[in-house]
Design goal:
Order of helices and strands: HEHEHEHEHEHEEHEHEHHEEHHHH
Distance between the termini: 9 Å
Radius of gyration: 18 Å
Number of domains: 2
CATH superfamily of the largest domain: Aldolase class I
Shape: globular
Helix content: 40-55%
Strand content: 15-25%
Largest sheet: 8 strands, parallel
Structural class: alpha/beta
CATH topology of the largest domain: TIM Barrel
CATH architecture of the largest domain: Alpha-Beta Barrel
Number of strands: 11
Number of helices: 14
C-alpha cells in the first residue's frame, strides 16, 4: 500500500498510533513501527529527560525504521522539549493542543516533518498557512482531550478534505479495518488510532485500566470537563460520576479545577486507580473486548 502518507513518513501502511499520555512509551511506538506503521511517543506525560530516554530506546530497537513524537503545545517546558527533539534528531513530530504557527517553522528549519492535529476545517486551513506537512483531523469520538466543536469524524473528514490539499489523516473512533475503509472513502489517506493501541499489550497503561476499558459498552463514555478542556472519560469510576454530577448541578470552572487537582490521568491510566483516576478513552473501546498484541492488531487492520 502506498500513498502520500506512506511516502511522507516512509512507512509500509498508513496507520499511525496516537501519542497518548501514559500509554505511548517506546515499547508501543517501536512495536507499531516494526509492523509497518508509524509509532508515536506521547511526550505529554514525560519529563524532558524521560522523553530523551524513550527516543533513544526507540532508535535502539528500530534502527533506521521511522518513529515520531507527539507534542502537546501546552506542554509547560515546551522550549526544553523542542530542543531535545532537535538534539536527538527526531525526524517526525506531531503537534496538538495549540496553534502550529509558533513551532512549525522552527521544527522544519531542523529538517523535521510536522503534522498537526485539528478538530475543524478552519484550523486545517490555518495549518496549511503555517506550513505543516500533513494534518490529523480528529472527531469527537476520540478519547482524552477533544475539540470544542464536537464534530464527528464522518462529518469532519470531508469538510477538512475540501478545505486543504495537504495529506490527511483521520482520527477519532477508528478501531476496525472497515472503519479505515470508510474514512478513506471520505478523503483520508491514513488513520491515527489511539484507543485500540492504548489497550494493547505493549501500551504502558496499567492492566487495570485496560481491563476496565475492554468491558465498556456502547455509550459508556462521556465528554466532560467542558468548562476546562473537553475530555472523553470512561464511565464506571467515581471520578467520572462525580464530575458528571457536578456539571449537571452547574459547578463553576474553578470548582471543577479544584476537584480535578493534579495527576488524575496518571492515577487512572498509569497507576490503575479506577475510582480516583481520570480514565481517558474513546468511544471505540466498546468495539474492543480483549488485550491484543500490536502485531495482532496490525494484522487485523491490514
Amino acid at each position: 500500500m502506498e500513498n502520500r502518507i506512506c511516502k511522507l513518513f516512509n512507512i509500509k501502511y498508513p496507520i499511525i498510533s496516537g501519542g497518548m499520555v501514559w500509554c505511548s512509551g517506546w515499547r508501543l511506538a517501536s512495536a507499531v513501527s516494526r509492523c509497518g506503521g508509524l509509532g508515536l511517543l506521547g511526550a505529554g506525560s514525560m519529563h524532558p529527560d524521560n522523553l530523551r530516554y524513550h527516543i533513544r530506546m526507540c532508535r535502539e530497537n528500530l534502527g533506521e525504521l521511522p518513529f515520531g513524537v507527539n507534542v502537546p503545545l501546552m506542554y509547560p517546558q515546551i522550549e526544553q522539549l523542542m530542543q531535545i527533539l532537535v538534539e536527538e534528531q527526531v525526524k517526525i513530530v506531531f503537534t496538538s493542543a495549540g496553534s502550529p504557527k509558533k513551532w512549525t517553522p522552527y521544527l522544519k528549519e531542523h529538517g523535521i516533518t510536522v503534522c498537526h492535529v485539528v478538530s475543524s476545517a478552519l484550523f486545517a486551513e490555518k495549518c496549511e498557512q503555517a506550513g505543516v506537512d500533513s494534518i490529523v483531523a480528529e472527531g469527537f469520538e476520540a478519547g482524552g482531550h477533544n475539540g470544542r466543536e464536537e464534530t464527528t469524524t464522518l462529518c469532519l473528514i470531508p469538510r477538512v478534505r475540501q478545505a486543504t490539499s495537504l495529506p490527511l489523516i483521520a482520527a477519532g473512533g477508528i478501531a476496525l479495518k472497515c472503519q479505515i475503509e470508510a474514512v478513506k472513502a471520505l478523503g483520508a489517506e491514513g488513520v491515527q488510532i489511539g484507543t485500540r493501541f492504548a489497550l494493547s499489550q505493549e501500551s504502558s497503561a496499567h492492566r487495570s485500566f485496560k481491563e476496565h476499558c475492554i468491558n465498556l459498552g456502547e455509550g459508556d463514555t462521556r465528554l466532560l470537563l467542558k468548562k476546562i478542556s473537553p475530555t472523553r472519560l470512561a464511565c464506571g469510576s467515581l471520578f467520572t460520576e462525580t464530575v458528571e454530577k457536578m456539571e449537571n448541578e452547574g459547578a463553576t470552572k474553578e470548582a471543577l479545577q479544584l476537584y480535578l487537582g493534579k495527576g488524575r490521568a496518571k492515577k487512572g491510566i498509569f497507576e490503575g486507580e479506577i475510582d480516583e483516576g481520570e480514565i481517558e478513552i474513546g468511544q471505540s473501546a466498546s468495539l474492543i473486548n480483549s488485550i491484543e498484541s500490536v502485531e495482532q492488531i496490525m494484522e487485523s487492520l491490514i
